[in-house]
Amino acid sequence: MILIFCIFIKHYSKIGTYYSLREAIAIPEGADLNDYGEFGNYASVTGDVSNTLLNCPHKDGGFMLHVEKTTSSVSNRNFAKQRLVCNNTECIEYWRIKSNDTWKKWYLVKGTLV
Predict the structure, then answer these.
(1) Among 77, 92, 105, 113, whose CB has the most other CB atoms within 10 angstroms?
(2) Global pTM?
(3) CA pair distance 41, 62, nearest whole angstrom
(4) What region, left, alpha or beta, does residue 8 occupy, with left being phi > 0 and alpha being psi -120 to 50 degrees?
């Protein structure tokens, strides 16, 4: 397990900024979220931008898109996970994975008060 983590750290030197919003890249109007497979953080700052995006499950509001690599990504560079976190008070997120160069369908993850 430690070996896998060390390999992960070696391949992804940006681990210290994994969830850094300061370094988030703005997603431009008309972009296709299928093109966002590179490890990092991306932002759709308004609903006007989100409404123009392709392969985007969220409309009418801004969001953060985290492209995450998992331990599977170390041996399989074609595997990634997108986590889209909506800018609202409902704790809504969407997740999907990329496997064998194909993005799968989005899953809606909605927070429940506990």
Answers:
(1) 92
(2) 0.76
(3) 14
(4) alpha
